[in-house]
Write a structure and sequence with these properties.
about 140 residues, alpha+beta, Pnp Oxidase, Chain A, four-stranded antiparallel beta sheet, globular
Length: about 140
């Protein structure tokens, strides 16, 4: 994920998992302690960009919105985060990352969980190659 502070400096953060509701609202779960700057920026009304990548193929998309909202974690967020980080860790290992690196990269404690929500306003291909940066449409 990425945003910017009040001076326009970039802020980057790493999400753990996401859920999409029936209205297309994206909910991204992340570790709160290392991502306080992102939370402050979003709370102040800064835009949000979230990139989702599949390690095996490097297939990536980026979703953007002019604003997002910091929300309290909901009961389904913990199980979703554990399931998605486990699958991501397994895929990292399957493409050659060391188990210790993959486990450290995806580790979190339930009490650290935070979330934000946004409705995507634009979407882009971010898979490396000639189509990278091109718009996606529904």
């Amino acid at each position: 994920m990425a945003s910017r502070d009040s001076s326009g400096r970039p802020i980057v953060a790493r999400g753990l998992a996401c859920r999409i509701d029936g209205e297309g609202r994206i909910r991204v779960m992340f570790r709160e302690p290392p991502n306080l700057d992102l939370q402050r920026a979003v709370a102040a009304g800064a835009p949000i960009a979230a990139t989702f990548t599949k390690p095996y193929s490097h297939r990536s998309i980026q979703l953007k919105a002019d604003r997002a909202e910091i929300v309290r974690p909901a009961p389904p967020d913990g199980p979703a985060a554990f399931a998605q980080t486990r699958a991501f860790r397994e895929e990292l290992v399957s493409v050659g990352y060391a188990e210790t690196l993959a486990s450290g990269y995806t580790r979190f404690e339930l009490h650290e969980l935070a979330a934000l929500e946004f409705v995507p306003e634009s979407a882009f291909v971010q898979t490396p190659g000639p189509s990278a940066g091109s718009s996606l449409s529904p």
